[in-house]
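RNA-directed DNA polymerase
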Amino acid sequence: MIKNENIRLNMLGLPIIQSINDFSHITHLSKYTLYQLSEKSDFHYKKFPLKKKAGGTRTICQPSKNLKGLQSWILVNILNKLKVSDSCKGFEKGSSIGDNARPHINANCILTLDLSDFFGTVSDIQVYNVFKSIGYNNLISTMMTNICTSDGSLPQGSPSSPKLANLVSWKLDKRIQGFVGKRGITYTRYADDLSFSGLHPANTVQVLPVVKSIIQDEGFRINPRKTRVSGASRAKIITGLVISNNRFGIGQTKYRILRAKIFHLTKPKEQNNIDLLNEVNGWIAYLKSVDKLRFNKVFKYVSKLKKEHPKTLINQMTIANIV
């Protein structure tokens, strides 16, 4: 049995860990530290509420430095070497929010769903099954599960939670894709945001009852307030990006707001507003990754304003480094 487990780990390119001694040696942490971070992991979090934009709060679990370091080690050396479903576009190395929008270009109808408490719905048993299925024994699977979970589920704030949630959602994605794909519907998932699109609005909307049933059967819950259908008369939006016939981007409204913020950097009263400068720089970096057309327009606009207002805060913009 041990030989079979090691073969599986080798095939996946994962570190072979059969005992706490192995775990200690490979992580350079003492056995006592590993025991404390595993058996008493709930004492290694600082928990606080964070307000949501749509109202209400979510609990953020900030791991201690040692626990976060071990979670990051598991993420880099084990979890990131595991493949997620083809439908999964969020929190994966090399993927972006644009990859989630791109498959839906040219759709006539878009249906979007949101899962409630995505991390909190993933149980410690499901996390254990991830580690067990890739070849780790009961002891190591239990230790890694304890390290990566809190109060029986994935904590929001741990570096390993997004990847583990994606891995646990593999069956969810496969079942949904298997159902909607046969009906000509495109499906992607970005964390807890599920997006469906098709050429025929009626066909797209008709998949909703079965999709809901699959989601519930897999142990997840839909947030009914965030279910959205958009067709010809309503803006098609996926994870904040506006979808058009042949492209996607931030949309005209957000673009106008960004231009106004950029122009404010030329105002005398804003010359010490470093927060505004950082906000604009962040928006432009985001713009480059999701909307090259408007990024090029912004670049020309900033270059023009820099010449017209050489002694203002706009000259500290880092747009030249982003190109």
